[in-house]
Automatic annotation (TrEMBL):
<dbReference type="InterPro" id="IPR043461">
    <property type="entry name" value="LpxH-like"/>
</dbReference>
<keyword id="KW-1003">Cell membrane</keyword>
<keyword id="KW-0997">Cell inner membrane</keyword>
<dbReference type="InterPro" id="IPR029052">
    <property type="entry name" value="Metallo-depent_PP-like"/>
</dbReference>
<dbReference type="Pfam" id="PF00149">
    <property type="entry name" value="Metallophos"/>
</dbReference>
<keyword id="KW-0479">Metal-binding</keyword>
<dbReference type="GO" id="GO:0016020">
    <property type="term" value="C:membrane"/>
</dbReference>
<dbReference type="GO" id="GO:0009245">
    <property type="term" value="P:lipid A biosynthetic process"/>
</dbReference>
<feature type="domain" description="Calcineurin-like phosphoesterase">
    <location>
        <begin position="34"/>
        <end position="233"/>
    </location>
</feature>
<keyword id="KW-0472">Membrane</keyword>
<dbReference type="GO" id="GO:0008758">
    <property type="term" value="F:UDP-2,3-diacylglucosamine hydrolase activity"/>
</dbReference>
<keyword id="KW-0464">Manganese</keyword>
<protein>
    <submittedName>
        <fullName>UDP-2,3-diacylglucosamine diphosphatase</fullName>
    </submittedName>
</protein>
<dbReference type="InterPro" id="IPR004843">
    <property type="entry name" value="Calcineurin-like_PHP"/>
</dbReference>
<dbReference type="GO" id="GO:0046872">
    <property type="term" value="F:metal ion binding"/>
</dbReference>
Amino acid sequence: MQRDDAFLRAWRDTATRAPEPEDEELARPPLRCRTLWISDLHLGTPGCQARALLDFLKHTECETLFLVGDIIDGWQLKRNWYWPQAHNDVIQKLLRKARKGTRVIFIPGNHDEFARKYLNHNFGGIDVAEEWIHETADGRKLWIIHGDLFDGVIQCAKWLAHVGDSLYEFTLKLNRHLNSLRARMGLPYWSLSKYLKGKVKRAVSYVGDFENAVAREARKRGVQGVVCGHIHHAEMRDIDGILYCNDGDWVESLTALAEHADGTLEIIDWAQHMPVTAKAGAPREAVAA
């Protein structure tokens, strides 16, 4: 049986086990929001920042949590199985949130496309959906998608996307070695991959084309905005009258999108919320979009 099917079965079976003991009272007060969006966690890869993600999940509360794709990296798991306890802890925490009343909605992306076989199913209280329309507290309708359907490389040359994923993984390994050297020199973390994306004109053009394509489709659907992930670039801006929101990623930037009680939206940089000790212990490596 394929590993991805085995994992989905494990996800389902985990929900039937006895609940684990609750965490001890935490000193830091939680950030309370109406809605949270996170994507591109890439669980199942050595570069997944599971420790930082657990800190986020422990210190936030919301009515609805959207998992906007690439939560589990099926591409990497097929090449090399990697699933440490910390990644299991993330799944357990998501299931616990669902048990305690948070509505959790999982919209699969290209890296966890195996889950699209389970659309309209529920795993341990987590709903799997292809897309979603979310209404904010102030009455705006937001279309929720991962975004890979608007990526020409994914749709027209998937083999090239896999090649790019492998090359990107090499860049990240180099990035890890560079940052080990920087740490010994007392210098802060620096993302080689983000630097390259910002400098290569074709990459900058790709981001702009993606954002405009998603906004055009949202306008056709008659909504006021769109929330997506996929390109690992957090952004919130108006595109010809459509509110374009990208919640970024949890491998390079540790970002999420939040809706507050009055319906206002905000991109959260969780690195600014984490204690110094947690930042120091969080592994810094990323994976491709």
